[in-house]
Write a structure and sequence with these properties.
Elements: H1 3-25, H2 27-30, H3 33-71, H4 73-105
Helix pairs in contact: 1-3
Length: 106
């Protein structure tokens, strides 16, 4: 099985999982105990596949976004500027705390 066909199968299961969740919220189905039990069992079984797949998709998306930042030469300068500002502000706060603690101990 190729990766594309595996991903498309997982996408199909994800859609089915979402659809079953919506069906379970339908008052007409919720009033049918046999149907709700059947849907709940199917939803539970699918969650064992869909939940890790959704986590995988999020990790892939996060990784893609991080790679885009790394590949963008302008973002590197922005990140450096941001770190410099953060470091400068941190140093100022540290100096104020240090001075304040010396003043209190005198």
């Amino acid at each position: 099985m190729s990766q594309d066909s595996l991903i498309s199968k997982l996408e199909e299961l994800d859609r089915l999982f979402t659809d079953i969740g919506k069906q379970m919220e339908d008052p007409a189905i919720a009033s049918d105990p046999q149907k709700i039990v059947q849907l709940s069992m199917e939803h539970s079984q699918l969650s064992r596949i869909v939940t890790p797949y959704r986590e995988y998709k999020k990790l892939v998306d996060d990784s893609d976004q991080a790679q885009m930042i790394l590949d963008d030469p302008e973002s590197d300068a922005d990140m450096r500027d941001s770190r410099t500002r953060s470091s400068t502000n941190s140093n100022r706060k540290s100096k104020k705390r240090s001075k304040s603690s010396r003043d209190c101990s005198s």
